[in-house]
UniProtKB/TrEMBL annotation:
Residues 48-141 form the Methyltransferase domain. PANTHER family: METHYLTRANSFERASE (PTHR43464), UBIQUINONE BIOSYNTHESIS O-METHYLTRANSFERASE, MITOCHONDRIAL (PTHR43464:SF19). GO terms for biological process: methylation. CDD domains: AdoMet_MTases. Transmembrane segments: none annotated. Keywords: Methyltransferase, S-adenosyl-L-methionine, Transferase. This is SAM-dependent methyltransferase. InterPro entries: Methyltransf_25, SAM-dependent_MTases_sf. One of its GO terms (molecular function) is methyltransferase activity.
Amino acid sequence: MTDPQATVDEETARHWDELYGGRDRLWSGRANAHLVDVAGALPPGSALDLGCGEGGDAIWLAGRGWRVTAVDISQTALDRAAAEAAAAGMASRIDVQRHDLSRTFPAGEFDLVSAQFLQSPLEFPRAAVLRAAARAVAPGGRLLVVEHGEVPPWARAAHPDRRFPTPEETLAELDLDPDGWRTERLDAPRRQITGPDGQPATLVDHLLLVRRR
């Protein structure tokens, strides 16, 4: 496991460590469905997983031959990701790094840069981080951004005015050179989930997939 001794905002790190520390496991351990849909059709190469959490996406990618740099601000999440990678026999294919993406960014270029639900209730320079993510894409590589498209039904009463950027708005924020990039997907897929009280629900996600020429 690699720790580049990155400078982190302690308040932000504490927030995410407490969130992960409140449960034995925060996420399912399965890879995000949209990542599976996109990356499952790609030849393996190098991948950067931004906001890797407990490592579900990174382990899935590594199991399909990718070399993965997995990044998060939460040391608790990274420790779990490293342990899960070792248990799955994928530790040699996953480089776990701690970064506060508002301050530091992993070095290198990658065939796939994945930002799965890289959204925060805290102050976070989302657009600047996504532009840095685009700069990290190698020639011929892809940037995949998947975000929440709307508040889930069970939380709408508490957040009646919450709005998320559309895929088109996210693409505009990236400010990509149209001669250097091709947009492969720009849509709002729906997925079926089970809510916290067991109720079925439909969620809207926002998906952007662009390829560097």
